[in-house]
Amino acid sequence: MKVIVLRTGGDLGQPLWKGRMRIIEKSDGVSLLFEDAQTGELFAKAIYDPLKPSVEAVLDSSRYFVVRVEDSGRKAYIGMGFAERTDSFDFNVALQDYTKYLYLFALILIISNSLAYDPRRYKARLNPPSPTTEDGPSPHVPTGPKKDYSLKEGQTFSISIPGRSNKSDHSTSGLLETDLLGSGATTSSSAAGVKLSGAVFPLLPPPPSAPKRR
């Protein structure tokens, strides 16, 4: 990125320095290096910290910023501007992405610490469920190839209903022959009574009807 460093007073026609800026990310943070575009000689170095005012944008332009540089423990604020608006946009996006990464990393640390101090979750982490019992098939499900019980073309089936007889000599006059007691006893209805295995039981007359009320 091509940048210019302004003099005190902000004279754009006579900048203090012209060159390039590189954004370097390491494990300890992000550094802004102001280097000579030809030789790579370091002009100034700034440490970017989202919690401190290390880089601040000006109010009336999107291409100019105020940067805090450090050298041997000494600090100074310089005005910096980009020659192209696209470079200014890329600079803003790079710093915003790094800031979001820091906040997300801090959130992950907070969640992991809360899980570590939760006894139930800590116990679950020490004793994870066995994959053979949790993830395996249920022991109640039958194994082996599945059987096909569907009817094929041309196949039929019959249902036998208990108490029904297929004899053709039965009439609809009320004659019923069946095994009542499991011993071969038969019943025959007549006007005299009911005969069970030779014994005759008279039929009781119907109860008298109730008198009519006037």
Total number of strands:
9
Low-confidence segments, ≥5 residues, pLDDT <50? 168-197
The CATH architecture of the domain at 2-95 is Roll
H and E order: EEEEEEEHHHEE
Number of helices: 3
Percent helix: 10-25%
Quaternary class: single chain
Residue share in β-strands: 25-35%
Overall 3D geometry? elongated
Task: Describe the structure in your own words.
- With about 210 residues, this protein is of the alpha+beta class.
- The chain has a domain at about 1-95: PH-domain like.
- The chain has helices at about 85-115, 120-125, 130-135; strands at about 1-5, 15-25, 30-35, 40-50, 55, 65-70, 75-80, 195, 200.
- The strands form two sheets. Strands 4-3-2-1-7-6-5 form a seven-stranded antiparallel β-sheet. Strands 8-9 form a two-stranded antiparallel sheet.
- The longest helix has about 30 residues, at about 85-115.
- The radius of gyration is 50 Å and the shape is elongated.
- Mean pLDDT is about 70; it is low at about 170-195.
